[in-house]
Design a protein that fits this description.
The chain has 86 residues and is mostly beta strands. It has a five-stranded antiparallel beta sheet. Strand 3 and strand 4 form a beta hairpin. The longest helix is centred in the first third of the chain and has 10 residues. The protein is elongated, with a radius of gyration of 17 Å. The chain starts with a helix and ends in a 25-residue tail after the last strand.
């Protein structure tokens, strides 16, 4: 969970953040911190809409690369020849 101090620093600096919710980059939320409480964070997106997100997501500056553990596999998966259909 992200700390109060880190959220306040992002808010004061108006840091553009990436909020990673799962392994798919298309589900990331991009915006700046507006407010927060014990369980959630309000993020203002570029289109000025505000989104309420849980604090247990990954919050990082947008210019940083996405961590590899939160990326979809890039290599094609080869079939092993074993089928469950039989």
């Amino acid at each position: 969970m992200i700390s109060e101090e880190q959220l306040d620093q992002y808010r004061v600096d108006s840091t553009l953040l990436r909020v990673i919710r799962d392994v798919s980059p298309t589900n990331d939320v991009r915006g700046i911190v507006v407010a927060w409480d014990d369980e959630s964070v309000l993020i203002r997106k570029k289109n000025r809409k505000v989104v309420k997100l849980a604090r247990n997501y990954i919050y990082q500056p947008y210019e940083n690369e996405r961590p590899p553990e939160f990326m979809l596999p890039q290599d094609p998966i080869e079939p092993d020849g074993i089928s469950d259909d039989e």
